[in-house]
Amino acid sequence: MSRVLTIEKLSIDIRAGGAGTRRVVNDVSLSIDSGRIAALVGESGSGKTLIGRSVMRLLPPVAALVGGDIVFNGASLTKLDETQMRSLRGRQIGAVFQEPMVSLNPALTIGFQMMEAMRLHERVSQAEARRRCMTMLEKVRIVDPEEALRAHPRQFSGGMRQRIMLASVLAMRPRLLIADEPTTALDALIRKEIMDLMVALTREIGTSVLLISHDLAMVAQYSDDVTVLRQGETVEQGSPAGMLLRPTHEYTRALMDALPARAPTNGVVRAPLVEINDLCVDFHRKRGLLSRRAAAKRAVDKASLSIFDGEVLAVVGESGSGKTTIGRTLLRLCDSSSGSIRFDGQDFNGMDADAVARFRTRTQMVFQDPFSSLDPRMTLGAAVAEGLRHVAGLEHGERLRRAAEILEEVGLPGAYVERYPHELSGGQRQRVCIARAVVARPRFIVADEPVSALDVTIQRQVLKLLTQLQEKYGFTYLFISHDLGVVEQMADRVAVMFRGRVLEVGPRNTIFDSPLHPYTMRLLEATPRLVRRADGAFELHTFPTRRQPAPAGHGYFNNGCIPGAPESVGAPLMIEVAAGHSVCCARAER
């Protein structure tokens, strides 16, 4: 087994204010052999991403490698010039970064961007490059690869953009893959398939992987070696079984203790605040330059849900299943095609201009990407105060005062009011987004993947903050997430979606302990969990599931979510199998 990458006593400094510098990576060493996966874990700011970027020689301008060496395939990367590094990037060293929208050029088609590196490094024909790209897109489960090659990044969800980035990099079959949070934006099934694909690639051609992640269960399941970092220094190194399942260092134990755990649900039964009945949402885009007719894509297909006052309803499912579309439609950010929505007893379609204005002050959204949803030119105080602009009778000074109060309440007191988004960490920016959402005291909040990009300790703090604010102000949450561990901690009820259809909905404990629909079981089975034992050690296992027969005279509705089974022919219908627990079925063929 040959050594692919060796990092020896790496140190990185960042220029601080004035002429000073700050050490952010200090004397870190690790190595990766051919065909193995080495993981870097730690909190945000621990230096994980900077180490990965230093291997690519892509450190930001304010950072500098000040000590140590990086050896790839026997050659020191620190001694290569830019032309030599350019020949390695993409062809022998591939990288998948955490934010796919930043990595993909919004002005260029997916096909152009995927084929560019291939044609540059391998001199293949356009037809061959196109064939290889389509094959890889199929492997990462892009539904229509040919259409995807013609599309632009903005036409895809965050999870689908990440799949495209992975396909683009893996198509080059690199010797070393640097995967920086490669599955952050992906649901459980796609995350498992992507990680299985990486493992298969390491076995097939000997690709080594430097995996940077805050998903400790995934690291324990897939990595061969783990390095735990804290504030740029190595805390401990070893195998996942020796470190994560039986943590000994105080810091590693603190990371494990921050993992989500099931919390008590809200047992109070109240009246519905939001009622959705047979909701359909279609998106239209032109087929081509000369086409007059627009192609319609159904994002939400006859969805019916009730969200009760004061509860947390979690919506889970694959990327592109319609979760975010439902949330945006409930806030009137997307138009419905048919069906009805009632908010606090009032029909959406019957709202006049005054009613819509009142509705805007009673609903808010916490977006998935806090940095993109904050104006970089506005101070935090101004950004949060903007949430009060529709509240009648508030002067500018009063809005700023209330903004400062809520920032302090979410843990950003004093001088934070005058800071800008780029001066904050990811977790702090998410706190600002939460403050902006709750400053007007809305009744209903859509939280769209609010902790997906955060490490476990910051994630725990943000989830605790959301719970505390709900207890204090009585908010109702529609909680959109692909992280079933987070859902298990936060949700009172859970709705499972696939390709716009609600397949199962019920109490949290019922969905996790006694699921019925095969797709729900697939999601649970694809989710590794680290569970604490009585002796303080941890075990890695998935949710136990048992196949249950469908209600008499019916079969479980299949719109492609049950591999190997024929798709349903009859119309889908939700059947209530127990109080509050419904599953989507189709009448069995006679």
Low-confidence stretches: none
Overall geometric form? globular
Count of domains: 3
* CATH architecture verdict of the largest domain: 3-Layer(aba) Sandwich
Average pLDDT, rounded to a whole number, is 87
CATH third-tier fold name of the largest domain = Rossmann fold
* CATH homology-level superfamily of the largest domain: P-loop containing nucleotide triphosphate hydrolases
What percentage of residues falls in helices of 4 or more residues?
Answer: 25-40%
Question: What's the Cα radius of gyration?
Answer: 25 Å
Task: Tell me about this structure.
The chain is α/β, with parallel strands linked by helices. It folds into 3 domains: 3-257, 3-Layer(aba) Sandwich (Rossmann fold), CATH 3.40.50; 263-341 and 444-590, Rossmann fold; 345-442, Rossmann fold (3-Layer(aba) Sandwich), CATH 3.40.50. The chain contains 20 helices and 25 strands. Strands 13, 16, 17, 18, 19, 20, 23, 24 and 25 form a 9-stranded mixed beta sheet that branches. Strands 6-7-8-3-9-10 form a 6-stranded mixed beta sheet, with helices on both faces. Strand 14 and strand 15 form a beta hairpin.
